[in-house]
Amino acid sequence: MWFGSDANLDRLAVTGVTICLDQATIHPSDCFRNLGVLLDSSLSMHQHIAKIASTYFFHLCRLRKLRRVLDLESQTQLVCAFILTRIDYCNAVLANLPDTALAPLQRVLHAAARFVATIGLRDHITPTLILLHWLPVRQRITYKLCTMMHSVFYGQAPSYISEIVTPVTHLPGRARLRSAKNGDYNIPRVLSGFGQRSFLVSGPDAWNSLPRQLRGIAVASTFKRHLKSELFFQAYGVSTIASTVADP
Question: For the chain, what are the domain ranges?
């Protein structure tokens, strides 16, 4: 599989190129699945988002058939189990995508909220999302990035993640800067959109944007609770403390 921008991929003559391994012939592909994530050659994530959106709407249709025999709490738990957890699965790979790319997932979130609250398509959805304490899709991605960076900062992340990012204190000549004292991580300069979406950039960018007192919370569960409150305020302009930590 070849990865690159659409312009660069058009320059490649990969038609008919195959790899022979023993008695197997491997043909080039435009998309493949890795740990449940569909990666396309241009890394636009359109196929992955379209696939999971269609799957979520299928589950919503199945849940609607059970609405008459379920109370509100049961409906909310089922939506969290079948819809929200899958929206959050590996969503860090969607970092810094444009709103147009994330729109299908946001529509799924709105449809799930309308199902739980039993409201129509013409009703305004924001009050319902606030009542349910659900973060928008973009803030859910930021939540994942910040929790990963929290594990890196406090030495709880595996080496293959912690070695990707660099604290400002480890950079020559920058150890005495205010950013180093604040626990910031270096955000390298990148020239492509692919670079902006990498964890090397998106992780430190999300972490550095958090208030200093929030980053100073060492206990993971407490950090997640206050992180959701911070992102909730950024999204809706109101403050809240999540009743649960596992589901943002």
Answer: 1-43, 44-134, 140-236
